[in-house]
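Let us begin with a simple case.
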Amino acid sequence: MSDIARARAQQVGAAFTEQASDYEGAVRYNLMGAHRLVASIPEGEYDSLLDVGCGTGWSSFEFLARFGPGRVVGLDPAEGMLDVFRGHAERLEDVDVELIQADVMDMPVPGEAFDAVICTMAMHWFADKAGAVREMAARLRPGGILAVLAGGKGVEAEYRELLESLDPPVPERWPKLYDTAPTSEREMLGYLEAAGMEPVDVWIERRWRETPVDEFLERMRVVASHLNDGLSADHVQDLHTRIREEMVARATPRGFGYHFCKLFTVARKPV
C-alpha cells in the first residue's frame, strides 16, 4: 500500500470517526441494500465471517441473523465506527467478535481463514479496487463466498451535475468524488476474474428517488465530511448554502430527484 493511499485511508477513517454516531440514521438505504445483499448469498454453512469496511456493524448483523456464524471479524479504518459496533455487539451471545482498525490493503488476518467475506458501501473508498478484491478473496477458504455492495455506475448523477453547474464553482474534489464511486458490472467481473473468483451473480439496482433536500444533505455531511479538509468553516457554510438553494430550486414537492444505483456482487472461491 502506497504512502498516498495510506494517507487517504487515514483521512477518510478520521472523517467517519467524527460522524460515527450519526451514520446509521443517515444511510438507511445502504442498510436496506445490505439486507438484500445478504439475502442473495447462497445457502450454506458459514461459521466464520470477515466484514471489510464494517462500519457500525449493520451488515455483520444482517449476516448473523441469516447464517448465525460463531466468529465475526470486523475491519475498518475508523475507530469511531468500531466503537459503535462494539456497543451493538454487547447484546450478542455465543459469538466471538473481533474488531480491528485497519485498511483493506493492510489486513492483519490470515489467508483462507473465513467462510464468507462481505464488504458493503466501502469499495468506493478503496484506491486500488482490483487489489482490494484480491486481498478479500485471499482470506476466503476454498468454496467460500465474497459478497460486495458498492456504488453503481450513474449513482447520484443529478447531484454531481448540480455541483458542476454552480458559479462560482465548488472545490473540484467535491464532484470528482463520484469518479471513485461508480462501478459497472463489467468492472467488477474483471476484478473477480483477476482474483481467481467465480461469479455467482453481479447486478445493478437502478432506482429513482426523491428525497427531502435536508435529508439528502445530512447524508452527504455524514459520508463525505473529509471533503471539507483545508476549507474554512465560513467557506463550507457558504458552499452548503448555495448548494441547498440550487437543490430546492430543482426539487419537486416530493424532494430532490436523483438516481440511486447500487452494484451487488456475489462470487465463490473455487474449491
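The second case is a distinct protein. As before, the sequence precedes its C-alpha cells.
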Amino acid sequence: MPITNQEFRNALATFASGVTVVTAAAADGKLYGLTVSAFCSVSLDPPLVLICIEKTARCHEAFKESGKIVVNVLAEDQRHVSERFATQMDDKFEGIEYSLNDAGTPVLEGAATVLECAVRESLDGGDHTIFILEVEDTEVGISRPLLYYGGNYRTLGA
C-alpha cells in the first residue's frame, strides 16, 4: 500500500538540511528567487550540485530558461531572507541586500556560501524539475549556516 503525502513529509522532516535561496535572472532582466531545501552535491569532478523546483512555482520557467543560477546557502541570521523568498510576493528582492554577478544573476549579501552555477541539465522529477548545475565559482563566508529540521528553523550549537 503506498504511503500518503503526509507520511512522506513526516519521514523527510527527520532529515536536517541547510536552507538555500536560489536566484536567476530572466532574459528580460526580471530577477527571481526561491527558498529551496532540496539541494545537494552530485559530483566533485566535474563540480555538480542539484536543486529541485516545484513545476507549479511561478518562477519555474525563469529558472529553466535562465542558463545561470546562484545557490545562496543562507547564514544562521538570515531566517527572514528564507521566509521572504518562500512567499508569493512580486518583488522578493525589495529590502534585501544583493549584488549582480557577471551573468546578471543576484547574489545575496551575507550568505554563508555562494555557488555560481550554469544549468547543465534539467530532468523530470515528478511534480518537481531536477536541475543539475555545474559550479563555476564559489564564495565561502565565515558565517554558520541556517538549518531546517522537523518543520522549524535551527542553528548549530556552540
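The first strand starts at residue 17 and ends at 18. Residues 5-12 form the longest helix (8 residues).
Keep these points in mind for the review questions at the end of the chapter.
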